[in-house]
Amino acid sequence: MKFGIFFEMSTPRPFTGGIERQVYDNALEQARLADELGFDTVWAVEHHFLEEYSHCSAPEVVLAAIAGQTSRIRVGHGAVVCVPEMNHPIRVAERAAVLDIISGGRLELGTARSSTWTELGGFEADPDETKKTWDEYVRVLPKLWGPGPVSHQGHAFSMPERNVLPKPLQDPHPPLWVTVTSPGTELDAADRGLGCLGVAAAGYDEQERRTKEYHRRIQQCDPVSSVVNDQVTTLNFLYCHEDPAVAAKRGMGMVGLFGLANSHLLWTREAYPTRAYQSLGNLSPGARSGSGSPGEKYGIPEGIVVGDPDLVYKAIERWESVGVDGVNFLVNALEVLPQDQVLDSMRLFAAEVMPRFQKGA
Amino acid sequence: MLTGTATIDDLPAGTVPTWDIEPVTLDGFEIVQALFELRTAGRQSVLPPALHPTNPPTLVVQVWRCAGSPWGPFELAQVRVQCRSGLRPRGFVIGAVVDNEAAGSGLAAGWGFAPTLGEVRLRRYYDETTAEVDLDGHPVLRLAGADPDPLGPHDVGYSSTLNLAHTPNGLRLVQLDLEVDADRVERLRPAIGAFDAAGWGNDLLDPWYPVSASIAVGRATLPPVRYCCRPDVLAFEGTETVVV
After folding, report:
1. Which residue in A49, B23, B86, B168 is deepest, having the highest Cβ count within 10 Å?
2. Residue A14: helix, strand or coil by DSSP?
3. What CATH number is attached to the domain comprising A279?
4. Alpha-carbon span B68 to B76, nearest angstrom
């Protein structure tokens, strides 16, 4: 079982007085501690214009800083939005290669297409096109990282023969992932030999069904490069405290606030009728939608990793039993938890829970 | 988190005298929905304190044309601000115009609309759909949706409606969960030729950036109200399940 932490850089109002600096400083400190404690990966999302929910619009810069301040932990670019109006594919390849080099070959690269009108509309991107451009990007990126010059004639972009430089340190390239929010995207991942980077947690049964189908399907994949990444990870929250009541109170405060911030985004499906977005694609574990009671509070997602070490262990053990290879954790949201509580939670988790998942434990 | 700052007493309110109503079926139903971004500056001032604005703030024009209802044929136009009640997407109705007095009374009594009597004309052509609304001969809306592009019946969604109304529970946001059973759906490219914000009851509205439009054709049901909310507190605290 692998463990990661996941940065949204969620930021409470008002956005003045150095709060964004504090959010970023705290995240860097969390990344350094995660490196010391033995976490496997630190991920940073790419989002634009998502007030409060995510102020992480330049993850490649964040990850460069993390790479420079850590020595062991892998850095996850999770995920770069594969929409030409936001990121030209040549620039994606170049930035990823540089990150891989300066991190000493520690880069994981996630790919995504964005699920909010807030973002797509802000860049005047066409929602009908994002699935197509994502598909083109994931097939062309390994070619751009190849040893020699390459040309491309495509739908999202074209280029005459050029040598895209530098080349990644990892051979043949960093592991590739797809963020999975909409049901069915895990099959797209499997068909292309890409890792499944879950960012909207399903329940145990749904996750088990999806994971089984993913692993069955990937046996017949036509991979986008010479390597297949067949890992499945899921997103969760983490708050661990010796007293389960304290853990529940603090942890669920974080969960609820993040869910509320998530609900204020304007979903593409809500704003722009299209066949390309069949679900809201909510960016939060266990998010709600639809016409039910507005008084319903943010539900406790099944398998939430909040509790004392035993509760946390049991939740993760259950995730492991349904075939998940790793869990990435949000360790804070909108700075609702003081930094010392976040760091203590991570330390307790590393001391009491992580060893139980080490091979042979 | 941002919440509405409108003064509740300044908002128009309908009247729902009883929750005890039967569902109403609307046959020969056409619904146009057009979404425009609003400027950020006034995003809180158009909503009561119970509701949260979306990011970006958006205005939705919804126009119904109904051939068969208990009140006879009618056409209704609504201007709504897209928002969140608790975690849920909702459309808060700023103003409505109806062309059939009996339909207006029925929609008011059952679901809290407070429509003004006027002229509403929704017309569907093969090359475009138009919606026109006049009040006292004065145009308050000219909307066109061009280049129809067929979609599946489930490719368009309608957020539940919130109307401010005096109800058996007191002054409440009344939730209508319109059920649309569409046979045909088309996406349209929206353009707004005239929009009289003051005519719709709030001159802060400025639908400046067109996002999308659609038309669906089929039938619809107005079910009895299941939930209402106090307008002055957040939905987590102020939601009430309607008891008949």
Report:
1. B86
2. coil
3. 3.20.20.30
4. 13
* Count of pairs with CB atoms under 8 A, one residue in A, one in B: 109
| Mean pLDDT of chain A, nearest integer | 93
Q: How far apart are CA A303 and CA A316, in angstroms?
A: 7
Tokens standing for residue A317: 């053990």
Helix (H, G, I), strand (E, B) or coil at B138: strand
Query: Which residues of chain A approach chain B closer than 8 Å at the C-beta?
Result: 13, 49-52, 117-118, 121, 259-261, 263-267, 269-275, 278, 287-298
Res. B42 pLDDT band, cuts 50 70 90: confident
Q: Give the separation between CA B83 and CA B61, rounded to whole angstroms.
A: 14
Q: Using CB atoms within 10 Å of the CB of residue B179, give its burial: 0 to 12 exposed, 13 to 18 middle, 19+ buried.
A: middle
Sort out which chain B residues have CB atoms less than 8 A from A264's CB and list them: 1-2, 52-55, 84
Q: How far apart are CA A235 and CA A4, in angstroms?
A: 9
The bridge status of strand B160-167 relative to strand B14-15 is parallel
Distance in angstroms (rounded) separating the CA atoms of residues A353 and A3: 11
Walking along chain A (361 residues) 10 residues at a time, the average pLDDT comes out as 97 95 98 98 98 97 98 96 98 98 98 96 97 97 97 97 98 96 89 90 84 94 96 95 96 92 92 85 50 67 89 95 95 98 98 90 62
The alpha helices in chain B, defined as continuous H runs, are: 101-111, 235-238
Q: How far is B136 from chain A (nearest CA, A)?
A: 32
Q: Give dist(CA A348, CA A54) in Å, integer.
A: 26
Q: What is the ipTM of this complex?
A: 0.94
Q: Residue A279: which domain range?
A: 2-357
Q: Which residues pair with B189 in a beta bridge?
A: B146
DSSP reduced 3-state for A24: helix
**Section B167-190 average pLDDT:** 97
- Contact, B116 vs B97, CB < 8 A? yes
* Nearest-neighbour CA in chain B from A75: distance (Å): 30
pLDDT in tens, B90-132: 999 999 999 999 999 999 999 999 999 999 999 999 999 999 9
Tally the domains of chain A: 1
Give the start-to-end residue ranges of the domains of chain B: 8-241
Tell me which DSSP letter residue B80 carries. E
Q: Does the CB of B84 have a partner CB in chain A at under 8 Å? A: yes
Q: Is beta strand A232-240 parallel, antiparallel or unpaired with respect to A305-307?
A: parallel
Q: Select from A243, A316, A337 the least CA-distant residue to A3.
A: A316
Cβ–Cβ below 8 Å for B35 and A271: yes
Show Cβ contacts of residue A206 under 8 Å, excluding neighbours closer than 6 positions.
none
The helix (H) or strand (E) run that includes residue A76 is: strand A74-81
Q: How far is B115 from chain A (nearest CA, A)?
A: 23
CATH no., domain B8-241: 2.40.400.10
Question: Under 8 Å CB-to-CB from A25, ≥6 apart: which residues?
Answer: none
The tokens describing A49, both together, are 């214009």
Side chain identity, residue B134: D
